[in-house]
Predict the 3D structure of the following.
Amino acid sequence: MDPARALALLWRIEQEPTRPSRGPRQGLTVDRIVRTAISIADAEGLGALSMRKVAEPLGVSAMSLYTYVPGRAELVNCMLDDVLGEAPSLRDADGWRAALERYARGGMDIARRHPWVPPLVSSRMLMGPNETAMWDGVLGALAGVGLDEREMLCVVHLVNGYVRGAAQQSADADHDVRRAGLSYDEWYEKTGPLLERMISAERFPDLTKVWRAGVFEEPGEGLGSDGGFEYGLQRVLDGIEERIARRAAERPAP
Amino acid sequence: MDPARALALLWRIEQEPTRPSRGPRQGLTVDRIVRTAISIADAEGLGALSMRKVAEPLGVSAMSLYTYVPGRAELVNCMLDDVLGEAPSLRDADGWRAALERYARGGMDIARRHPWVPPLVSSRMLMGPNETAMWDGVLGALAGVGLDEREMLCVVHLVNGYVRGAAQQSADADHDVRRAGLSYDEWYEKTGPLLERMISAERFPDLTKVWRAGVFEEPGEGLGSDGGFEYGLQRVLDGIEERIARRAAERPAP
DNA sequence: GTAAACTCTTTACAGCGTACGGAAACTCAT
DNA sequence: ATGAGTTTCCGTACGCTGTAAAGAGTTTAC
């Protein structure tokens, strides 16, 4: 994968000095291809995304796509940056905490709509325009709260890491069950007897206690309908808030 | 994928009432296969793990593996539970905070040794013995700090999510660069000119300001050699601590 | 009109997971 | 000892993947 070409594609810059003047016009656009690929990945997952599957609904052969996109990896890069454009603006947020809340929830919403996104975000080496705008937005929200640049970066990393982990966790819970083609009830019917034989109260006392409290029961795991995302987010923001307060106390009046 | 069989394999229970007495003995063990697969995944990544590649160093054909393991997915399940056995014990930790610190760092260590792990953890639907023990340990560390079962689960989810996200982020940074077969310097040499043309100070002022501070420079991103993991972990624990303190204040003396 | 340039297609290859059927090995009943 | 039963292991094959290579077809420049 040539990074320069991948980057140029992300920003939709033609690398060649002059556009081709000879030869037939292209019948497709990168955007059409990317959007088709996104809809396939949304429906069937990133693993089921193949060049042939993208080409078919566009009415071309798989190899035609290679005139628009260097390869599958670069296509996925473009897909990622495209959906990151759905992130909400933080411009008019009321303070850093509200901005980070909106940022995190926006990330979670994207993950819900596009379950294939969380494993991909934040490679950071190949940022497209939308990912760049996201970084600019969240760093702007953190500007002027008294953290230096290094600490701002750490904070964004923290929130990114949490959102990413939480999103994947909620997505994974369903994954196995769907692959088996079962309902949750059927799943527990099949695994329950074996599980209860293995997870004994003597060997795993603390887990058993929590299990018996019934909070594991529902798919949402009894953490609320969001799988505990909001709870964890508030704890993360609490931790950041304390740090900001401490920093403010260290350097009193400017 | 049959969940009952997958679970039985994870716990190494022979499902059939009696072991086969007739026929040749098996020349391999599930553990040998799992360990071979782990070493391949460690070296080349999970994507490069194929049944044929696992079979070859064991001196058998790919299809022989199917007498031990129902398929690739179940093998990966076993690999995951196996490496989760490397997690440190939390038994003699000094308080919940020290225990969670050790838990989080242990998870990060596993992720460093086995970069393919983070995307897999916490499907929760198919827990093996080691993953179960991890849950028991961390829930035990949180028992008696004044949180109810639901909130304990949220806290574990929070830490899990953070560790997972942070681990993947640090692993991803290198991913693209390695795939391109370049050094970091070569990478920036190739992408730098284009990047600087796109990421202008007018369009992305806040990002540019942080960029110019130089904290993006190193692979570790200037967040310390751990990529900001410790910083974020302390913020997460701060947030949890505040919550625990507030809970304690709500229900004063028991 | 012809040659160059470009798009799109066809074919092909190496690799994947694994279904299927057969060969070899081993145990047991006789 | 021998035949039957059972299991392990292997060879082959199928449909899938990304994409290299080469050819066919279309448009423009000269």
